[in-house]
């Protein structure tokens, strides 16, 4: 691990100033991703700003009936929070599908949002990687790429965003509250993470010095029709090969509002609003959902070892939408895909 | 742009197994290395050093956490329990006793982490069925594959605790 300057501010303003002062400064929340990356010299921050003393641990009602979740609320506290379990069970389910009991106790809402890819080469400092060293090349293209992207990849990077929580947040149309050197701003979830394009070193649209202060969940009632279905190499404690967060409003046997976000397939949680729009007014059925899956995946492209993910994604979308329609969300304990 | 100079020592206070420690630490020392290398508490094991195995699980303020991914200075003021702190005198913690009773280990390397994780899981109170125990214990890998007996031990203690709670009511 590199040597660094360590500071522990008590106020948000001091934390933002400490982060903004040096371009290489990093916030430390639960540390479950940052400390890991520092051990591998993948992250070598000259300054670590320990944000654990900041007042960002509350889950509060917003004026318009939603919830505001502080950036330091742990993944466990959020998943088991009575208001989340009752009003946003899709989010609770996605969080509980990720990592392990002890990791979720340390991991925070802000840190989960900003966790970095699990691409093997990103972690291996002896290989080229455009995300780690811009311009050095991408070892995954033509290399071991079984876990890599099938949508929205570029010639520079084919990595995927590893979070489960973020897939649910994308489906729920959450917002990210940020405090930066220029003050506070709100970023819609769809505009928070980005596609790799020619600068994969940027995972998201944050600017230097920005601190994530909260996630805001909208008031929308997502009803009974939701599920988080995660497919991975073992039953637990593994990242998603493909995951689907689905929420559907069904009125008089017809699909109304529908949101489907995919995890494990792209550099950001993937949503296709046009395809969702085309599904409105249709009756929910396996045939309809299969057409939708093909629509969402129309531009999908494998890079060799991950070709299987296209078919896997197609089936996972259909299965998730059937689970949501029936009101039988995936159980994250017994794992039986019904 | 000039870079900041590294911090050398940070004064912190930790209560570890009931004993207060005033420490001066470099900020890059993990809680796991502090426990093992500096305080001689080698019950907590280092397996992967990456959050992937659970051998380093300890309780921080009563909650199970992977000590290998914690910078010790970031937990200034915390109350930490390691496997060495679970027994009361010569009396084993009920889960320690259940691990012996159910033969829930082979080589024993994962065991301190399994037991701390199981104690944390029971305090969380979200595991009621065997499936829930297995799922919520998935952060602890056992190279010897003692999973069946580990789940038996935890299930047993949970059942005994809820029986005695019901008897008390
Ligand atoms: C073995 C293992 C398995 C895992 N499996 C899964 C899984 O299946 N699914 C899943 O979703 N995740 C999984 N994870 C990842 C885990 O969810 C993340 O490591 C965790 O959510 C990160 O949160 P943290 O608070 O520990 O972040 P940290 O490690 O503290 O920080 C992560 C990054 O975010 C930045 N940061 C943190 N908070 C803020 C803030 N408020 N403002 C600005 N920047 C900030 C840090 O500077 C750093 O760059 C796994 C991790 C491990 C080690
Ligand atoms: S896919 Fe992205 S993260 Fe992986 S090696 Fe290529 S550039 Fe690096
Ligand atoms: S040593 Fe910490 S999880 Fe393996
Ligand atoms: S008993 Fe050997 S690793 Fe679990």
CATH superfamily of the domain at 226-326 in chain A: CO dehydrogenase flavoprotein, C-terminal domain
Shape field of chain A? globular
Alpha carbon gap, first and last residue of chain B: 67 Å
Instruction: Describe the largest sheet of chain A.
Output: 5 strands, antiparallel
Strand content of chain B: 5-15%
Beta-strand proportion of chain A: 15-25%
The CATH class name of the largest domain in chain B reads Alpha Beta
Question: Which H/E pattern describes the elements of chain A?
Answer: EHEHEEEHHHHHHHEEEEEEEHHH
**Domain module tally of chain B:** 2
Question: Span between N and C termini of chain A?
Answer: 45 Å
The CATH class of the domain at 226-326 in chain A, by name, is Alpha Beta
Helix proportion of residues of chain B, in percent? 25-40%
Percent helix range of chain A: 25-40%
CATH architecture of the largest domain in chain B: Roll
Show unreliable segments of chain A.
none
Largest sheet, spatial ordering of strands of chain A:
4-5-8-6-7
List each distinct ligand once.
Answer: flavin-adenine dinucleotide, iron/sulfur cluster, FE2/S2 (inorganic) cluster
Structure characterization notes:
The complex is a heterodimer of chains A (338) and B (169). Among the domains of chain A are: 5-52, Uridine Diphospho-n-acetylenolpyruvylglucosamine Reductase, domain 2 (2-Layer Sandwich); 226-326, Enolase-like, domain 1. In chain A, 28% of the residues lie in helices and 19% in strands. Chain A has helices spanning 12-21, 34-39, 75-79, 82-87, 89-96, 101-106, 109-114, 120-123, 165-171, 273-279, 286-296, 308-326, and strands at residues 5-7, 26-28, 47-50, 59-61, 67-70, 175-180, 183-188, 211-217, 226-231, 242-251, 254-263, 270-271. In chain A, α5 packs antiparallel against α9 (165-171), α10 (273-279) packs antiparallel against α11 (286-296) and α11 (286-296) packs across α12 (308-326). Chain A starts with a strand and ends in a 12-residue tail after the last helix. Chain B is built from 5 helices and 5 strands. Chain B has a 5-stranded mixed β-sheet, covered by helices on one side. Chain B has helices spanning 31-38, 94-101, 111-124, 130-136, 147-168; strands at residues 10-16, 19-25, 57-60, 63-66, 79-81. Chain B is 35% helix and 15% strand. In chain B, α2 crosses α5. The mean pLDDT of chain B is 96. The A-B interface holds A 1-8, 21-24, 28, 30-32, 35-36, 38-39, 46-48, 50, 52, 76, 80, 99-103, 105-106, 235-237, 332-335 and B 1, 3-7, 10, 27-28, 30, 49-51, 54, 57, 63-66, 69-71, 73-74, 76, 117, 120-121, 124, 126, 129, 131-132, 134-140. The site of one FE2/S2 (inorganic) cluster (FES) has 12 residues of chain B, from loops.
């Amino acid at each position: 691990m590199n040597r660094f300057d360590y500071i522990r501010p008590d106020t948000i303003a001091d934390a933002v100033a400490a982060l903004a002062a040096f371009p290489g400064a990093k916030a430390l929340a639960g540390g479950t991703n940052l400390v890991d990356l520092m051990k591998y010299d993948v992250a070598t921050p000259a300054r670590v700003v320990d944000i654990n003393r900041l007042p960002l641990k509350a889950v509060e009602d917003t004026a318009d009936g939603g919830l505001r979740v502080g950036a330091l609320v742990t993944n466990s506290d959020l998943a088991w929070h009575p208001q989340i379990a009752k009003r946003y069970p899709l989010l609770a389910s996605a969080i509980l599908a990720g990592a392990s009991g002890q990791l979720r106790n340390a991991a925070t809402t802000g840190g989960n949002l900003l966790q970095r890819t699990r691409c093997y080469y990103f972690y291996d400092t002896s290989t080229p990687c455009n995300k780690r060293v811009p311009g050095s090349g991408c070892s995954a293209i033509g290399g071991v790429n079984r876990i890599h992207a099938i949508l929205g990849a570029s010639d520079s990077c084919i990595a995927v965003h590893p979070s489960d929580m973020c897939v649910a947040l994308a489906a729920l149309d959450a917002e990210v509250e940020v405090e930066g050197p220029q003050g506070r701003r709100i970023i819609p979830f769809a505009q928070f993470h980005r596609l790799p394009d020619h600068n994969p070193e940027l995972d998201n649209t944050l600017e230097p010095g920005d601190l994530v202060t909260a996630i805001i969940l909208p008031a929308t009632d997502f009803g009974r029709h939701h599920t988080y279905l995660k497919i991975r190499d073992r039953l637990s404690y593994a990242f998603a090969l493909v995951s689907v967060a689905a929420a559907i409003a069904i009125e008089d046997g017809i699909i109304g509002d529908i949101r489907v976000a995919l995890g494990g397939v792209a550099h950001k949680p993937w949503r296709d609003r046009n395809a969702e729009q085309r599904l409105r007014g249709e009756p929910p059925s396996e045939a309809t959902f299969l057409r939708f899956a093909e629509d969402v995946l129309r531009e999908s492209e494998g890079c060799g070892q991950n070709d299987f993910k296209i078919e896997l994604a197609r089936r996972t979308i259909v299965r998730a939408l059937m689970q949501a329609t029936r009101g039988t969300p995936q159980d994250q304990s017994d794992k039986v895909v019904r | 742009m000039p870079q900041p100079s590294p911090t050398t020592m940070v004064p912190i206070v930790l209560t570890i197994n009931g004993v207060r420690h005033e420490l001066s630490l470099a900020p890059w020392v993990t809680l796991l290395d502090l426990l093992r290398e500096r305080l001689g508490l080698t019950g907590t094991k280092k397996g992967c050093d990456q959050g992937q195995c659970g051998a380093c699980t300890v309780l921080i303020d009563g909650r199970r956490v992977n000590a290998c991914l914690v910078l010790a200075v970031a937990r200034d003021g915390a109350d930490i329990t390691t496997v060495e702190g679970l027994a009361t005198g010569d009396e084993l913690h009920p889960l320690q006793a259940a691990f012996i009773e159910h033969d829930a280990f082979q080589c024993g390397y994962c065991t301190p982490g399994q037991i701390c994780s199981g104690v944390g899981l029971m305090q969380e109170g979200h595991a009621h069925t065997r499936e829930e125990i297995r799922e919520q214990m998935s952060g602890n890998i056992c190279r010897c594959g003692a999973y069946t007996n580990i789940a038996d031990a935890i299930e047993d203690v949970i059942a005994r605790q809820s029986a005695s709670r019901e008897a008390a009511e």
